Amino acid sequence: xxxxxxxxxxxxxxxxxxxxxxxxxxxxxxxxxxxxxxxxxxxxxxxxxxxxxxxxxxxxxxxxxxxxxxxxxxxxxxxxxxxxxxxxxxxxxxxxxxxxxxxxxxxxxxxxxxxxxxxxxxxxxxxxxxxxxxxxxxxxxxxxxxxxxxxxxxxxxxxxxxxxxxxxxxxxxxxxxxxxxxxxxxxxxxxxxxxxxxxxxxxxxxxxxxxxxxxxxxxxxxxxxxxxxxxxxxxxxxxxxxxxxxxxxxxxxxxxxxxxxxxxxxxxxxxxxxxxxxxxxxxxxxxxx
Length: 289
What we know:
- Helices cover about 75% and strands about 5% of the residues.
- By secondary structure, it is mainly alpha-helical.
- It has one domain: Orthogonal Bundle (ABC transporter involved in vitamin B12 uptake, BtuC).
- The protein has a two-stranded antiparallel ribbon.
- Strand 1 and strand 2 form a beta hairpin.
- Helix 1 (about 1-30) crosses helix 9 (about 215-230) and helix 10 crosses helix 11.
- The N and C termini lie far apart (about 50 Å).
């Protein structure tokens, strides 16, 4: 029984890690607390629902179309909302507040169009894979494979490609990037596009299993932020460990207590980290000047 819960927790943790990585791509490089990231995660499954359940397109094609749409929306958020504020030299707090406003608008627009009730993409019972006493559904297997491939692909590009070098340079020192003639505004669009893709993939994978409603974005966003803080801000590999840690922790809480205690334990761990190790597991302690 414990092994089954650990497997379930690891699969959920892999999705947490992928979504946390999507948030970290923006936050580590721009320091913008991109709360509108939550609505990208939430809108993606609704787009799949429109293409698949209402328009009748194949599920894979619907998912790809939804990811492309979310990528475009993510880029538009940077172009229309964040960039004008940056040009006006607005503080990061002002940008964060605008992001909150955008999230609220997005939630209400989706609720107005689709309603507040839960929508499901497939009502069929998923086939399973049995490994002794361990049972994994095809949907869980799909979640694990896709999230692992997405994370692995990004980490390889981060280490070996020019895109990865530029991303790490943006994380370390934006001023020097400008000095060395990197087109920072243009490159930021690429980062927002990639971040949106991770949010969309995560939202679609979760909705295949449990469905969606207009309010699913914020709980996942909070888990992603906790994963980033626990892992260590500024390190792209850190939220991966933070996400897995949260997934396993929540699964153990369900096993020993109840699903109602998941959030309590998650944020209790966050508070412990903020008090005793605010730099996270892999972050470096910052020296005050």
